User: Fold this.
Amino acid sequence: MLPPKDVVKIAVQMVGAIPQLIELQQTKPLASVLKDVCDAWSLPNAERYALQYADGRQTYITESNRRDIKNGSILQLTTSPDQEAERLYVGIQSKNVDVKTDSLKKLASLSQDITFAQEFINRNGLKQIYSIVEEGSDTGEMLAHTLKAFTELMEHDFVSWENLSTVFIKKIVSYVNMNAVDASIQQLSLSILENMVPTSHRVFEVVKNEVTLDRLLTHLQVTNAQLQLKAMALLIALLLSAKEDERRDMMDYLREKNIRQFIHKNIIHSSEPLGDEMAHYLYVLQSVSLNLCEHRMKTSMDPYSQEQRDLLQFLRQTAFESESEAPAGTFSTERRRSLCAKEFRKLGFMNNSNPAEDLRRAPPGLLALDNMVYFSRNTPNAYSRFVLENSSREDKHECPFARSSIQLTLILCEILHVGEPCSETAQAFYPMFFGQDHFFEELFCICIQLVNKTWKEMRATQEDFDKVMQVVREQITRTLSLKPTSLELFKTRVNALNYSEILKLRQMERLHQEEMLAVPVLELREKLKPELLELIRQQRLLHLCEGTLFRKISSRRRQDKLWYCRLSPNHKVLHYGDVEEGVQSPPIESLPEKIPVADMKMLLVGKECPHTKEKSSGKQNKDVLELAFSIVHDVEEYCLNFIAPTRYEFCLWTDGLNVLLGKEMTSERTQTDLDVLLSMELKLRLLDLENISIPDDPPPIPKPPSNLNFCCDFSHAEQ
Assistant:
């Protein structure tokens, strides 16, 4: 007798026939199964038929995916992929416009199936698609179906994008540049170009030259959110594929066109909520822009460069203008050199005789010099006040401007991740970045004045330099975590977070930690843990029941198909299936695929997942590894692969799946949530003990009294 896992009970239906209920033996060849089904309906030529799912994407059943069929699945008998591919191959060449349009519409639908796509491509079907695009003049429904079919066929990676002809590329570009064309065609065209650009420098050059930045900016300004998104996707693809000089020129041009202000006003602060995809593109745009500082950050100062020496002299002369006004013949060379060294010392350079030595350290390299010059040119009053104020202080209490600027530049580079590769999934950007053209320099101007303010509040000396910079780093990171929407708001908040506030925050955190480490409190924590862990388990399962929208990330690009997964309310079945863009929470009935929780064997994360082993192990995929997990079900070779949209979702899903598997929750979020809940519960229980020190050991229990005669006898009621 066959084991149960090799037999599945399914229904097979066909238009105009009574459905069949059969037991599908997974060890039996699919051709034999098809023959039995056809014989039951008296259909000849079983080889011309195939089985496919009746619901959802209607995927064809093959020997490679038949193990995915579950008990209760509904299949339908349909024309085999090779027969359907041949029919549509002929149909798209028809002279009858209606037949051709219908064939292209059907082709766009069926091309999502990998089996059909391979059959169609093997018939040189893509060549016919190229011809329709290159030679056609239609810009209506037929073209939309053609572009959709082309996109779906290319998704399977049977053909490389870089093999496309220049004529084809320029034709696609023409649809982007047209004014009187349907928005759906422009969306598909932008999406196709986005896929092409990363494949080769030749394609990049063609697209960059044909699709102007002005045209992309025009598409960004439309009210159609999807068209706006596709235009942003192509812009980001062009920026990431460009060489450093080209990227710098493109960013300079975008700055001239005030793209940041437009994004800040019309995208970030628009009435519509910001989607995950657009948030990612804004993060990448921010990262690409900040990484333009990387070259200067990693370049040491050249003491023989006249240009760089002139910048140093400019800093000195701007700060001590009145002292440097004496004619050249007034002082000897030695006296002038001594005066310059004194002024550089007042500026805060460690090596006042040769200040270039201070800027030899890279990072921050020449970026620190650029920031100092920007500060002196754009806020000359604040610059002079900073330098002259500290020149008049006692020797050990002056705040060194140059040394502080160099260290502050390094701190800002670390906080803003300057020089680090873009993440494939991150969505965290600073809204205030898009409200200012010279963001990094303006942020420096605010923070260098904060250094001086904090230095005075701490009454610091030269020996306290590292402590001051540590406090400044904390002030900046705490303020940035609040996501201020403008630099003005950042300035207000960071200045309000003065040294005394930092001390209060540190003291509160320290007292809280000490309080939580008392022996009786630790014992109470251990007693509360099981109850709170159960609460976290319930929350994780509830989150799985609500479901999450996932993306299938391909090797070419981040944006790809969307799919949704959620747990049934009785916690017995995982439902999942593909969904369209814009669908937030599809009903569980619309998700055709199922995995019984009883069939789940184990959970894989990170490098153990099969879909991460297929990818390269470069830095750009590090974030994908941190978000990847897979469910192994039935037999080990069958996995459902996930890439979580955020680390938060990764933690909640892996915890929830571990709960379903009867294992411990292992994510860092579990410990964080447990600490928060324990802290709240302990504070509530210890409210009555406020300002009372808790002893490490419980007080001794007194000895029992020598007699119990003091007890009253209430058995006799008073008369």
